[in-house]
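Chain particulars:
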Amino acid sequence: MAPAEGAKAVKAAKAARKPSRGSTASKPAQPAAPAAPTKTAKTAKTAKTAKTAKTPKTAKTAKTAKPAKPESRLAMVRRARRINRELAEVFPYAHPELDFRSPFELLVATVLSAQTTDLRVNQTTPALFAKYPTPEDLAAAVPEEVEELIRPTGFFRAKTKSIMGLAAALRDDFGGEVPGRLEDLVKLPGVGRKTAFVVLGNAFGVPGITVDTHFMRLVRRWRWTESEDPVKIEAEVATIFPKSEWTMLSHRVIFHGRRICHARKPACGACPITHLCPSYGEGETDPEKARKLLKYEMGGFPGQRLDPPPGYPGRPAPPLGASGG
């Protein structure tokens, strides 16, 4: 080998052994760094975190869900008027269920009907009016004799005081005639707004809303009012219906309360207006069981009047002491 070529070979060998700048070949081996999480692992972790965070949010949303939108005033009025129209079809024969032949007899019978049935009053008043046909006669009666005649209606001592007192007031202040004004009627002993409107509506043709226990129960079930005060209920219901409907509305509602929508166990399964009633389900919903709860002519039984008006589809009630009385 020529000297020049040998020198080149040595120089090339040294260059091969000398590391180039930036090379890592001569550096000691470093421990491997932990592998970065793969994209799949990271995604799973993120999804788990998101799921954990989402669950309580969903629960909280369900817990604070807003209640259904309450019925508007307009919708309630429309529903109430539809109930009245449909009850008019169910009870076209609705009427006052006290037997009477004059305003005086209706006034006395209505006072006696407190805390008893109209049937019991109707079974009691024939003997009373046979003996005391006018206010003058009743005002001059012997209290003990009146008490004995009206004993079947209950609270007979207090009721005797009331009917004799109103008879005396009619004799002394109104010429023996029943007045046809609310402000005069409520001044009579034992006569409140309910009694006055019964007399005005059925003896004088003056529209009025009769708020008895049946009426109060049903208008609350139907969400026409939330009040429990009879005077406030009367005022609130009066704003829903035209005045011309007040008297017949009272009869229809009371008829429905006595026959179908009872206090303790409404016959929901036999009710013709369930589609309009927000309280459906408070009573018996099975149709067969509900039909057994129907009263008076709706259940095939006698009505409350011994002398019902023409067109009444049921049977007259029996007199006092008769079978079924």
User: Anything to note?
Assistant: The first helix runs from residue 3 to 17. The chain has a mean pLDDT of 86. The chain has 14 helices and no strands.
